[in-house]
């Protein structure tokens, strides 16, 4: 099924036999179903993304089959959309960071590879949850060049119910679809075989990452609603939403699966946090100044939404410290205005430049990347894994695009957007 194609769904009573408690209902596949064999770690190295996609395909086939056994409408409207969204689009950066951290820490056993690919697949599912919910919160109509999930469901039912009811259904469906993706992600991690020590560390990291992701999203929407643009709050939101969730935690998960020692793990986490913060700062700059043809999304979205970015916080702090009333008026009158014109967006960009905020952010990115790579170099790592991990970290911050043979790494301009995708 192609979920982007609207279908005529007539709302009819569900026939008997579709609920698990009714006689004749097909049983869902058992959770303990055997996991398919995976190739050796050295084989996966050639194309980590494709290997994760292969694991995802099997996992999602089983889960959509289980959803069909629960209810066909639920399976078609929600489960199939979650599967389609997760398998199509996205750059799989988090799962690749996990893989190369595992390899850099000496992970060479097939069992470690299998665990890394499964937890990598779970990361892609939790990212589906984040993006589907994010689109609802932002009111974004497009994602990766296609209708966002809530917009797709709204369009599907637009002809058989009122506009308000179809829109409400679309939003509710997206919230539930995101919940479903999170549940599936948790199931995958819970069903993944690991050594007792690795399992304990992975569970703790997974718990922390989920809460940090939600906290970062809330700080974002809270800042948009309240127009709070303090430097402290901007740094905190960037650390939670990007430094931790997008970079540090995936790396830490890979280290845990390889059984890395505490010293190595701390060095890798420090590297990931520095570069993850730089990644968010690069994304802020690209949103304000990037060309849509390079970034894959329109510029100025953060300005219109009033997102409490570090870039905006620095500009406001600089304007306040120098008494620049014109700059303060531009920021006050334009940030958070969805109907801001191109001329008004240009005026904000000029303030970002004139106050020195743009140069300050660029300089901070450079310092953060250099610091992160020093942390990486301080760890005792397997040379090939270290090299590939270094390339991924530099690419995430927009300072490199060499992922090694067989790997497709986004260009510096597109990498900072990571899985945010093209929304409009």
CATH class: Mainly Alpha
Which term fits the overall shape? Answer: flat
Strand order of the largest sheet: 1-2
* The CATH superfamily title: Farnesyl Diphosphate Synthase
| Structural domain tally | 1
Our Rg estimate from Cα atoms comes to: 22 Å
How do the SSEs run, as a string of H and E?
Answer: HHHHHEEHHHHHHHHHHHHH
Task: State the distance separating the first and last CA atoms.
Answer: 24 Å
**Name of the CATH architecture:** Orthogonal Bundle
Please mark out the parts with pLDDT under 50 across 5 or more consecutive residues, or reply none: 1-35, 402-424
Residue share in helix? 55-70%
Essential attributes:
2 strands; Farnesyl Diphosphate Synthase; disordered C terminus; disordered N terminus; two-stranded antiparallel sheet; mainly alpha
What do these coordinates show?
The protein has helices at 41-45, 48-70, 72-87, 93-104, 110-138, 149-157, 163-190, 196-226, 231-258, 262-289, 292-295, 301-305, 310-322, 325-334, 342-354, 357-378, 383-396, 412-415; strands at residues 142-143, 146-147. It is mostly helical and 424 residues long. Helices cover 69% and strands 1% of the residues. It is built from 18 helices and 2 strands. A two-stranded antiparallel ribbon has the order 1-2. Strand 1 (142-143) and strand 2 (146-147) form a beta hairpin. It has one domain (46-420): Farnesyl Diphosphate Synthase, CATH 1.10.600.10. Residues 1-35 and 402-424 have low confidence and may be disordered. The two termini are 24 Å apart. Helix 2 (48-70) packs across helix 5 (110-138), helix 13 (310-322) packs across helix 16 (357-378) and helix 16 (357-378) runs antiparallel to helix 17.
């Amino acid at each position: 099924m192609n979920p982007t194609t609207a279908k005529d769904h007539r709302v009819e009573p569900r026939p008997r036999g579709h609920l698990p408690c009714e006689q004749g209902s097909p049983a869902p596949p058992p959770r303990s179903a055997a996991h398919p064999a995976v190739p050796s770690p050295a084989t996966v190295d050639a194309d980590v993304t494709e290997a994760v996609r292969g694991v995802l395909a099997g996992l999602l086939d089983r889960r959509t089959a289980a959803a069909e056994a629960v209810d066909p409408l639920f399976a078609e409207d929600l489960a199939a959309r979650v599967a389609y969204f997760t398998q199509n689009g996205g750059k799989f950066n988090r799962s690749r960071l996990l893989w190369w951290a595992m390899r850099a820490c000496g992970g060479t056993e097939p069992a470690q590879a299998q665990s890394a690919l499964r937890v990598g697949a779970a990361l892609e599912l939790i990212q589906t949850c984040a993006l589907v919910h994010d689109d609802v919160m932002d009111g974004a109509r497009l994602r990766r060049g296609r209708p966002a999930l809530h917009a797709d469901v709204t369009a599907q039912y637009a002809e058989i119910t009122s506009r308000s009811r179809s829109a409400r259904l679309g939003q509710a469906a997206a919230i539930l679809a995101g919940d479903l993706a999170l549940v599936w992600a948790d199931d995958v991690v819970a069903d993944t075989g690991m050594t007792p020590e690795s399992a304990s560390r992975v569970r703790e990291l997974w718990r922390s990452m989920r809460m940090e992701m939600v906290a970062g999203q809330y700080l974002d929407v809270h800042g948009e609603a309240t127009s709070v643009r303090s430097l402290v709050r901007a740094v905190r939101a960037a650390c939670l939403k990007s430094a931790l969730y997008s970079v540090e935690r995936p790396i830490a998960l890979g280290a845990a699966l390889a059984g890395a020692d505490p010293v190595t793990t701390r060095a890798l986490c420090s590297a990931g946090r520095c570069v993850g913060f730089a990644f968010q700062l690069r994304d802020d700059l690209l949103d304000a100044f990037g060309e849509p043809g390079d970034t894959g999304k329109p510029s100025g979205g953060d300005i219109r939404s009033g997102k409490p970015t570090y870039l905006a916080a620095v500009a406001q702090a600089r304007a306040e410290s120098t008494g620049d009333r014109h700059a303060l008026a531009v920021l006050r009158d334009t940030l958070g205005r969805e109907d801001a014109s191109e001329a008004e967006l240009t005026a904000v960009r000029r303030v970002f430049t004139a106050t020195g905020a743009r140069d300050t952010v660029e300089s901070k990115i450079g310092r953060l990347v250099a610091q992160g790579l020093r942390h990486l170099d301080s760890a005792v790592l397997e040379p090939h894994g270290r090299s590939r991990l270094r390339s991924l970290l530099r690419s995430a911050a927009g300072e490199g695009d060499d992922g090694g043979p067989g790997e497709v790494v986004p260009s510096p301009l597109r990498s900072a957007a990571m899985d945010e995708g093209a929304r409009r």
